[in-house]
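Journal club side-thread
Mid-discussion, someone asked how the predicted structure for our own chain would compare to the paper's figures. Pasting it here so we can look after the session.
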Amino acid sequence: MIIRDATDTDLPAIVSIYNDSISGGKATADLVPVTVKERWAWFQEFDPDRRPCWVAEDEGKVVACVYLRSFYAGRPAYNKTAEISTYICPSHQGQGLGTRLKKKMITECPRLGVENLLSFYFDHNEASRRVNEKLGFKDSGHLREIAEVFGEKRGLVISILRVGSSS
């Protein structure tokens, strides 16, 4: 398994993995598949030196991605805070890959200038909860019934990991 910076040519695989997560109703608030074209500008915002997007490649195939996004639309007062997201193709779920990807990103946070790492997940997503607990994230908010996913009211949990000073 190779974990590396995502390139433009990985975007179709990233979009496919993301779209696979929609039907399960646990990993994203999107309700219909997105297109590569729709995600192009989003993908261009990643910066390997500050807000990276990595892919996990297994036998030459992209099977997962993990990325950091600036919090609160990148407002300067939040420069040391980022949101982490992880998406894994169904064939590689439940094998510890999510933990591995998050752990690797956490170790890079000081270099990336991140002191506060946020993880947002639906309150019925037990896999995300377990990974976050294992890695030391602390729940700091629960917005009950804030989303409706396929006819079901869902809450959003906000967890934080204090990574430490980047200086």
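Post-session note: Residues 2-162 form a domain with the Aminopeptidase fold (CATH 3.40.630.30).
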